Amino acid sequence: MKPLILHGHHAGPNPYKINLILENLNLPYEEKFWVLGEDSKGVKGPEFLKINENGRVPALEDPNTGIVSWESQAVINYLLRVYDKSYTLCPGPDASEQDRVDYDKWTAFLITTFAPMMGQRN
Q1: First and final C-alpha spacing in the chain
Q2: Is 117's pLDDT higher than 80?
Q3: Whole-model pTM?
Q4: pLDDT reported for residue 83
Q5: What are the respective helix, strand and coil percentages of the chain, to the nearest 5?
Q6: What is the distance between the alpha carbons of residues 36 and 33, in angstroms, rounded to a whole number?
């Protein structure tokens, strides 16, 4: 399996959410760090805008499938659908509806409340 490529920067909490998923699923990955700005190493620069036209991190490239995903929840959903075949981080097909709802609640909390509060600290 080829390593996935996680695009991030050091200034916010969102790429770390993806790191946690990748680590917990024992997936090989490389990190490419960008800076804030419009130059060639910046998230608003032309090279990164080819990966994510919104110029934000995280973004994930999967050379195994050819998929490029961005936005934390979209990347998490992709990784779980494609790589969490044993359902270690998400409810499986035999899970109860309450288990699915609980997963959705806590994932929504992470994405919309907890992580933005952590970003305020930077």
Answers
A1: 35
A2: no
A3: 0.85
A4: 97
A5: 40, 15, 40
A6: 10
